[in-house]
Amino acid sequence: MYFISDAHLGVGNDSLKRERELCNLLDQIKDDAHIVVFLGDMFDFWFSYKYVVPRGCIRLLGKMSELADHGVELHYFIGNHDMWIFDYLASEMPIKMYEEPCIIRYDNKQFLCGHGDGLGHLDKKYDFLRRVFRSRFNQKAFAMLPPRLTFSIAQRWSRSSRQSHSNQENHYMGDSREGIVIYCKEQLKIQPVDYFLFGHRHTPLDVKIEAGNRVARYVNTGDWLNHRTYAHYTPSQGLQLLNYQA
Ligand SMILES: [Mn+2]
Fold first, then answer.
1. How far is the CA of 170 from the centre of ligand 1 (A)?
2. Ligand 1 centroid to residue 43 C-alpha, Å
3. Distance from the CA of 81 to the center of ligand 1, in angstroms?
4. If you measure from the C-alpha of residue 108 to the centroid of ligand 1, how many angstroms do you get, rounded to a whole number?
5. How far apart are the CA of 158 and the centre of ligand 1, in A?
6. Is the predicted pLDDT of residue 168 greater than 90, yes or no?
């Protein structure tokens, strides 16, 4: 079982190289992966219209559908950059799409997965924007604008969102400042979880989470944008954070 996040395809001069490397990883794991979980922001920006889809990212889309056809179970947690992907992927291949964190069961273990944005509610302004952008009514209104306008608004939002999140330090900031850690502790109080997996922080992390007499691990996959890190679980070796090797 593999977990990958935050490739942000479409941004930067090395986007194509990043995409090729990601496809290469998916090729490497194709035969032994039962499940691949994408933890969001694989695309830097996406908007699916009813009849039209954006340009680009065909290698990844092709590789994902190849894995799905090969019998690999695919899951996709929508991120804050690709939140307007809607039903496009699921209409092209067997893949399970999620807008909010959700538990995936494998090997009698509970993996609580999600993208990770807005968790812990440390940023009220972001909570508000998240609701605005995820409202079905606003999405429908947005889809009626001509793409030229939609894309320029969206690219500005994407850039500002990347800049505001880049204020977050690229190391562990402490339990009270890590929104995802706050969320993990709350969840562990309510239900048993073995592993929490998130992206969005762009920082590979492996944190022990304790609540009452329950203990779990929170692993952040880092990102494919800068770190080329991902997580791998096997029943014999448990959960590991790994670096991509060409
Ligand atoms: Mn994100």
1. 14
2. 10
3. 6
4. 29
5. 10
6. no
What 3 state SS string does the chain have?
CEEECCCCECCCCCHHHHHHHHHHHHHHHCCCCCEEEECCCCECCCCCCCCCCCCCCHHHHHHHHHHHHCCCEEEEECCCCCHHHCCHHHHHCCCEEECCCEEEEECCEEEEECCCCCHHHCCHHHHHHHHHHHCHHHHHHHHCCCHHHHHHHHHHHHHHHHHHHCCCCCCCCCCCCCHHHHHHHHHHHHCCCCEEEECCCCCEEEEEEEECCEEEEEEEECCCCCCCEEEEEECCCEEEEEECCC
Domains of the chain (ranges plus CATH)?
Answer: 2-243 (3.60.21.10)
Enter the pTM of the model. Answer: 0.94
Q: How far is the CA of 80 from the centre of ligand 1 (A)?
A: 5
What does the pLDDT read at residue 153? Answer: 83
What percent of the chain is predicted at pLDDT more than 90?
68
